[in-house]
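The aim of this short unit is practical: by the end, you should be able to scan a pair of folded records and say something sensible about each. We start with the first protein, listed as its amino acid sequence and then its structure tokens.
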Amino acid sequence: MKQIQLQHHTLHTIILIILMFTSFVARAQDCESSVTIVLKNIDGGIYQGQKVTLTPKAGGVAVVATSNAKGEADFTLPCNIIYSITVTNFAGSKEVQSPEFEGGRSIRTLAYEPDMREKEKLFAMTTAEQAEVDKTALTLPDTLFMKSTIMAPPKLSEYFSAVCIYLKNIDGMPLAGEAFLIIGQKRNKTIKCTTGPDGKLFVYLLKGDTYTLNFKYNKGYSSIQTAYSAGSSKMELTFTYLGTKEIERRKKLEAERIAAEDKRRKEEEATFIAKCKKLGITPEEGRKRDIDSYLDALQSYADTVISAVLDRNNWQDKLIVCDLTGSMSPYYAQLTVWYQLHYKKEKNLQFVFFNDGDNKADSDKKIGETGGIYYSPSKGVDSLSRFIARVSSRGSGGDCAENNIEALLKGTKMATPFKELVMIVDNNSPIKDISLLTKFKVPVHIILCGVIDWVLADYLLVAWKTKGSVHTIEQDITNIASMMEGQDVVINGITYRIMGGEFVRITKM
């Protein structure tokens, strides 16, 4: 009898799990938006009766529609998905993204010649012709130094694509005197070149290769494809780039800011230690008193970003990873207050705190092995306050950059299963171990503390690469996960653009 009851209970549980999964899938597909692909003849008119296929780039079932009398192919799609576009009479690769919000509509127009496919077939090289092009590559130098902005025509010009490259800065002006490398990925041939006063450069690139543009601070910034095609081939390409001189100017200013911040932190730590000695208390008790003093003054503290963001977003079963270094005392005091108000209804809440190395000397801090990372489940208000004081007291006023990614990598392994990962960070501190980001795949909701004007690009990159989100006291930037190269995001009135796989501040300051 007990075995029958157990089997019945197991079956009931399986059915419940299936229903829950079905409900989850249904909810995930609830958000629908529309995309219209418009097919235009570049010589005038539209294309009717063409099959248009949208294929999800992340994998999944393709959807098909036929262009109507207006040249439009209409699709109803799940929100916030990137698709590759294929059209029966269009030769090329294009993408479209469905709108992020319920009921949103996006229109993508393709304008091309009516004989585009025929030309592609007509001018396609035979296998033998492609082999001759590849043989020509053996006669080229591994590295070519251009002495002017115009390359001399090659002998077998039909094997090369004539390419005019135009570099612009973020203001849309010519990027003059910009040195960069053009590197063929297939044949590993390199061209060293520099733009002229007009920001332009004219080169001949051997067909049948993909070439990357490589700047001093941005390798593989963008790419150029040259297909195996018979006859002459010409391209005019425009790229927007911050520019080496501007990057170095910004790096200099940031280095000065970080040096000043490092000095301030060391002085602040020395003052704190001297105060503890004078009072005859341990650093841990000193930190505990600091938290209590911030709690007393919290009502008059204008920056309430932590409570504002956590109250706005209904994240369940959270793992909160929090920076306890530098000037974060007011913010982990805020976290303590928020926890005091919510801990009874917060199920499965967990914490990871990090202090950038437990008083380790800056010279001894190795990427991925800095340490100072501590885990705690939810145990009650007094326990959390004491734990925060203990972890923060073990840190010091060391260098400004923090081991954020190490804290994420190790902290998520310390924790029990969770649904949402929230990271509370100091916007004034860069990420020293950003190189480890490729090893971390869990979406991160980043709460930025200490934002006055700009946001550090490091934190935008973490949210973008992990498909997470960014949060300030006033904004929830949840669409950053779906952003693509060239798109902008505005935070606190300042614009940032994805350029070469990085976030670049466009607004001048």
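Turning to the second protein, read its sequence before its tokens, just as you did above.
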Amino acid sequence: MRIIRNDYQTIHPIMSISVKLAAFDHVVNQLIGWYTEKHGNWHENDLSRLKITKLLFFVSAVTAKQDEYGLLNIFDNFSALPYGHVESDIQDRILESSNYLITKDALSFQDGVQTYEKSPELSENLEAQVDEAVRSLKAKNPDLISYSAFDLVELSHRWQSWKTIFALAKQNGKLSMKIPREMIMSEPKIFI
């Protein structure tokens, strides 16, 4: 039996991928707003797949606390890879975004899409959580949106969760390993 709860702060609800993708599209929409505030027109941007992936990690981690999942309750499948934390479900389905085409170089709307359209899968509660997480991240480092993708990689490499789990993966002859959410929740958060 599949249970999807409306209270995203409860202990690990089963999340459908369609809800996760809807939340991801809203994160991207909020990142575009932030990018536009800093740089003006977002249509000529450096919001590449790698940069969006790194920013998704920071957005997900910023509201997490030792006893609260924050957005890690939605984006709950981070792994340690050579370029840092990667939300594997999103990485595997990033091309399924209903609004955005995210390439290795930049971000644009999907063909036939001209403005962001919120998915009916995105609850008001989840929308508000994403909005709050992006606001919190902007408050911690308003220039983070301007970092290059590789600066964001370097920043994520300073997190203990990545250091520990990636080292463990390499010891086991792998280049990726799942990071327990509790590690991210309890570690010091580095955003600058």
